[in-house]
């Protein structure tokens, strides 16, 4: 049986994740591969699902909802990894299993209030502005503990951990430093006794996957290496 390009890419990325785990003595079972399917067709997602890929990441709500409808017959797990607008929280709470980009209490409160009773709690990660960039989304490092405490108190959210998008750099030492910082922040949260899983570090993309896995990533977000280049984004 011949594999499609997307299926071949998935096999290749899985092998890369496994090799990166092996180098640091981790088991590949500890690292979830999130296939980032923004700006890709429902058909491309279907091909990935044929390679037993289940978790998909989307950045734009309307595009994601259309894809979910087209793929209703598959048992997929949808993660939202884009910027959150407060007027979009209801649809996010209704149509996603995970949110990686939570960085404000007001959004957290809305998501908790709007999560349908028939669904399990919404799995959330706090996005941390790990490289302290003025223009970047994410909660500031010194505000993580306070926001985590507030989110942990919301009944319909389950706080799974932290997510970051460090400043892009080919410098491996700098990559390691940013990811190590996120790992330490998650470790510090354990001491707060929040009674939440706090078991997830969403960090690492194609260019810095190896450093992320060495520093304890449990979820890597890979788009282009699986689906190929995206068409340039116009308006959303
Ligand atoms: C687009 C995106 C990715 C994947 O990026 P690629 O370069 O396509 O691998 C990962 N994480 C986030 C938050 C993204 O927006």
Could you characterize what this model shows?
The protein is α/β, with parallel strands linked by helices and 236 residues long. It is built from 9 helices and 8 strands. It has helices spanning 5-23, 42-50, 61-70, 89-95, 105-114, 144-152, 172-190, 209-214, 224-227; strands at 32-36, 55-58, 77-80, 98-102, 122-128, 157-164, 200-202, 219-222. It has an 8-stranded parallel β-sheet. Helix 6 (144-152) links the parallel strand 5 and strand 6 (157-164). Helix 4 packs across helix 5. The N and C termini lie far apart (39 Å). The model has no long low-confidence stretch (mean pLDDT 96). Residues 36, 38, 59, 81, 165, 205-206, 221-225 line the site of pyridoxal-5'-phosphate (PLP).
Cα(first) to Cα(last) distance is: 39 Å
- The DSSP helix count reads 9
Per DSSP E runs of 2 or more residues, the count of β-strands stands at 8
Average per-residue pLDDT, rounded, comes to: 96
Strand order of the largest sheet: 7-6-5-4-3-2-1-8
Strand percentage lies at: 15-25%
> What is the H/E string?
HEHEHEHEHEHEHEHEH
Structural class: alpha/beta
Q: Radius of gyration, Cα only, in angstroms?
A: 17 Å
Name the ligand types: pyridoxal-5'-phosphate
Q: How would you describe the shape?
A: globular
The low-confidence parts are none
Helix content estimate? 25-40%
Biggest sheet statistics = 8 strands, parallel
């Amino acid at each position: 049986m011949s594999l499609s390009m997307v299926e071949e890419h998935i096999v290749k990325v899985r092998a890369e994740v496994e090799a990166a785990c092996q180098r640091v003595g981790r088991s590949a079972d500890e690292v979830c591969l999130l296939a980032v399917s923004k700006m890709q067709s429902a058909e491309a997602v279907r091909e990935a699902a044929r390679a037993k890929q289940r978790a998909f990441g989307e950045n734009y709500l309307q595009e994601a909802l259309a894809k979910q409808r087209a793929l209703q017959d598959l048992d997929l797990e949808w993660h939202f990894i884009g910027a959150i607008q407060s007027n979009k929280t209801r649809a996010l709470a209704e149509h996603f299993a995970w949110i990686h980009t939570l960085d404000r209490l007001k959004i957290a409160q809305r998501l908790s209030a709007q999560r349908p009773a028939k669904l399990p709690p919404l799995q959330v990660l706090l996005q941390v502005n790990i490289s302290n960039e003025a223009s970047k989304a994410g909660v500031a490092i010194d505000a993580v503990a306070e926001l985590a405490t507030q989110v942990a108190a919301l009944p319909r959210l389950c706080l799974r951990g932290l997510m970051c998008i460090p400043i892009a750099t080919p410098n491996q030492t700098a990559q390691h430093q940013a990811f190590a910082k996120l790992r330490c922040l998650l470790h510090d949260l354990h001491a707060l006794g929040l009674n939440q899983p706090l078991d997830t570090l969403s960090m690492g993309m194609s260019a810095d996957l190896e450093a992320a896995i060495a520093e304890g990533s449990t979820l890597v977000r890979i788009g282009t290496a699986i689906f190929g280049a995206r068409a340039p984004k116009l308006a959303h």
